[in-house]
Every structure is written in structure tokens, then in C-alpha cells.
């Protein structure tokens, strides 16, 4: 399940060592403990995927702190952009028309309902300040599925809203 | 793995005496500077550990369990919040450094050091919160003028001036003074300050009334960062992003009303009224830099590391804070900080540089003499530069400087006021 980590022991030790510091840093910046934990977990995910190089880094603690900063910037930037997208969608007169997926995806039997559900999901994460994990657990889906659905809706809305 | 070796050589225990709020502010400042490189990474590491001890326990075992079961299964090398279709790990935000604020002859010195550091490669200076003289001069020549403190001014102007001073005093108590425009449009008069305390914010607003028009300045101070700052009604005119003094104002149109607003997660400043776009930007141009408090915290921390405290002159009445800057300059990571105040068309600047190597600053002067003014056992060098009075002095490895263009300000009295505040 997931990616195998070549050096589980050092990863675990580093996690134990750095988790508290990273939470403290992220909490100071984000002002929200849940979002701070998600940023920290996200950072360690990236660390693990790149473990072959990150474990051999001369300063893995510094690498983690820098990547945490980048993760938080990503979080703020994309949430702000998505917030504007939501506002733009809500202010348009063709919201119902927007929330219908075009692609003929056999997995989407009810394209309009899927788009509506994805819109609610996006609002939950962006406007309510929910973490991706919390939003995923509310819907009984995985974090990965949550991310994919947000990506799908976001791309769909950007395409639709840019049409004249 | 243990804390990086270098951090063992420096003593960061002075941070132990700082409050949690101050330490969190330092971390926020570290995050906000471009790529966070302007701060001392070892100090940041120490502060994060300090906060972890104070705010813990964090139950890392339970967090590890969540990591293994909830997050790691979907790890693909990209951030959860990387919602673009393109791939790759989150790259550092390429925040361009703020423009350098040249100040007399020192301006060229700072710029030279910054450029030299860049040319040396591998290091960068991270200046921020600065204006260039040209912008200041243009702004001074713009159509609206500052309210004058002249004794011969008309009675209405004198009344407005008192009203503005009273407003600023009230805003200072609310911690909002440095968010408020330091002047207002000609032909308008300030009203009273209205203050409301809500669940999530403290809100203050002032309306400036003209013959047939008015505009209002709102400042909201949020208790916590929020995405629920309200919605603005607008027509289909495109939103304009207007940059000024390290802030981005979004200008919206709604029929005959223009609104400009900016929000940094803590403060939201909004200006709205029946103004032309040029008039609205003139009001925005009078809003000071928001970085005063942050930079003060940072320089206080830097001074504490060398066993010093920040002392400050008594700013003469009528001078309002306008801009500030904070630089960390390699290769020695000298810290340079300054604040500039303005009264009418006169300005006053106070700053310091903490050297970790040889001093490098130089100052422009005219052909007048340099006076050595000894006070409290310290020699202050006072000289002129075509109408500007400058004072420079050293306290151990910290170089202090002050200059003022207003000939009615006694620079020696300003110097003495620094020691009176000790």
C-alpha cells in the first residue's frame, strides 16, 4: 500500500524529531492547527516519495522546513485562486449550466450531480477552511479522491468561465 | 539526526524570554519574506522547537498513524494543494524582492552591497518595504496636497487638522494607525471615527465629506485569519490590482462607486466612495507600509542577539509613519532597518545597521563642517547635506543614523530624546 520507503527507521526518527517543530511553524503561519497538520503531513509525503535523495541530503531538517514553507504557499495560493473561482461562478447567471461536466466519462453516470457534489466539496475546502482529510472523511472518500475531484472541477470551471 | 552543528555555536537563549505571541510573529515574518531566506534558519529552528515545547504535546505517534493510513497512500511527490494539471513538487514562490529604498549617499552604498552580494553568487539580499526617491517626489507633486500645519491656515483647515490628529490618536489605541491614510483629498473633511467590536473583528471607519460627494475608509482587524471577509457588489468592470507600499489593493466598480480593498489575513483596509479612479489611488498612495510592527519585532530580535535594545527618538508632533525597510545583507548578514516619517513635505528617517563585519555605509554631505556632539558618553557626528541635517553614531558594532529635512526640527533634541526613552 502506498510507496515503499527504503529506510523506514530514519524516516520515522526524523518524523518524531521534526513533527512538533513543523507543527509549531505551520500553526504560527496558518493560524489553524488542522491545516497546519495537513501541511506537515503533506510535506512528509513529498519527503517519502523522494526518500532516495532526501535521506541523503546534507540537512534533511532544513529541507523539510523549506518544503513546508512551499507547501503552505501552495495551499494559500491555490485556495485563494479557487476562492476567486467560486465567487466568479456564484456571480455568473449560468451557474447551473456551469455545473455540468461535458466529458463522456463512463464512471460519471450523473454528470450534473457529480459536478454539483464537487462544487460543494470545493466550497467546503476553500470557503469553510476544511482540510482535505476532513472533507474526504465527511464524504467517505480518500484524500486522493478528494484532490482529484477538486482538480477536475477546477479545470472544468476555468474552461467554462473563460468561454464567452 | 541532531540539530545542525552551526547552531551549537550561537546562543539563542534570549528567545526563551520572548512571549509566545512574539515568537509566532517572528515565524510569520520569516514565512512572509521572500522564500524565507532573509532570516537565520538556525534561529527559526530554535524558535520552532521552543514553541513546540510550550504548545505541546503534539502526539507524534498518533500523527504518524494518520500519516501512514490517510496521507501516505496517495503520495505522488506533489503537494495535496497543487491543484494545477502540471506536475512537479511545489517550487519556491519566486517573490521578487521589494525595490531598494535609496537614502541619500547611503542609498548607493546599500545598493552596491546588494549587487556585489548577488554577483558573488549563491546569496541574495532580501530587501523589502521600500520606495524609491522618484516615487516619493512624484507623489509630493500630485494634485492633492497634505494638510498643512501652518499657523496662518484657514479655520476649517485648522479644525480638520485637529480632527485628523484626534483620529490618528484613536486609531493608535486600536493598533490601526499605520493602516490609515496619512492625509486626505483636498475639498473633503474628516468625520468622526466609528468603532464596532464584532465576534471575529474590530471594525473602525471614517467618512470624509465633500460638497456633493464623500468617501469612507474602513479598517477591520480580524481576530484570526478568515476566508469570510464579506462579498463586495460590483458591476462588470474588470477588477484592477493596484500595488502600493507592499500591499495589493483590488479596485472594484459598482455603478458610480469605486471600492479598493486589501486583506493580509489580519487587517482588511477598504476605501470606497464616489471618487474617480485617480482620486481613489491618491488616497491609497497615502496609506503607509504595513510592515512597521513586523520589522520592529525583527530588529529587536537582532539587537537582542548582540545584547542591545531598540531605543527610539521622540518623533515630533505632526510626523506620521510612512515607510519602513528591513534588509539582511550577505555575506556577513548585517541587518539594516529604518523607519521614515512625514509631515507635509518634510520627512524624518531613523535607522540602524548591525554589523557582523566592517562598516560599509557612507553618507552624502555638503561642504559644511562635521560637528562632534558628545552626549551620554557617545560621540554623534552631525553634518548637513543641502538642507538635510544628518546624525550618525556607533554603539559597539551597531551604526545608528538619523536625518531630517525640516529645518524647524532640532536634531540634537531628537538625539537627546533617544536616551530619555532608555
Outline of the structure:
The complex is a heterodimer of chains A (164) and B (422). Chain A has helices spanning 8-30, 33-49, 51-54, 60-91, 95-98, 111-126, 132-139, 143-161.
Layout of secondary structure:
The complex is a heterodimer of chains A (164) and B (422).
Chain A: H1 8-30, H2 33-49, H3 51-54, H4 60-91, H5 95-98, H6 111-126, H7 132-139, H8 143-161
Chain B: H1 20-32, H2 41-55, H3 60-71, H4 104-120, H5 133-140, H6 155-173, E1 189-190, E2 194-197, E3 201-209, E4 214-222, E5 240-244, E6 247-254, E7 257-263, E8 267-273, H7 277-285, H8 292-305, E9 320-329, E10 334-343, E11 346-354, E12 371-375, E13 378-385, E14 388-395, E15 398-404, H9 411-420
Antiparallel strand pairs in B: 1-3, 2-3, 3-4, 4-8, 5-6, 6-7, 7-8, 9-10, 10-11, 11-15, 12-13, 13-14, 14-15
Helix pairs in contact in B: 1-2, 1-8
Quickly list its features.
A: 164 residues; mainly alpha; elongated; B: 422 residues; alpha+beta; Phosphorylase Kinase, domain 1; seven-stranded antiparallel sheet; 9 helices; 15 strands; 28% helix; disordered N terminus
Describe it for me?
The complex is a heterodimer of chains A (164) and B (422). Chain A has 164 residues and is mainly alpha-helical. Chain A is 75% helix and 0% strand. Chain A is built from 8 helices and no strands. Chain A is elongated and about 55 Å long. The model of chain A is unreliable at 105-111 (pLDDT under 50). In chain B, the strands form 2 sheets. In chain B, strands 1, 2, 3, 4, 5, 6, 7 and 8 form an 8-stranded antiparallel beta sheet that branches. In chain B, strands 9-10-11-15-14-13-12 form a 7-stranded antiparallel beta sheet, sandwiched between helices. Chain B has 422 residues and is an alpha+beta fold. Chain B is 28% helix and 26% strand. Mean pLDDT of chain B is 75; it is low at 1-8, 86-105 and 107-155. In chain B, β9 and β10 form a beta hairpin. In chain B, 33% of the residues are buried. Chain B is flat and about 75 Å long. Chain B folds into 3 domains: 5-148, no CATH class; 157-285, Phosphorylase Kinase, domain 1; 295-420, Phosphorylase Kinase, domain 1, CATH 3.30.200. At the A-B interface, α1, α2, α4 and α8 of A face α1, α2 and α3 of B.
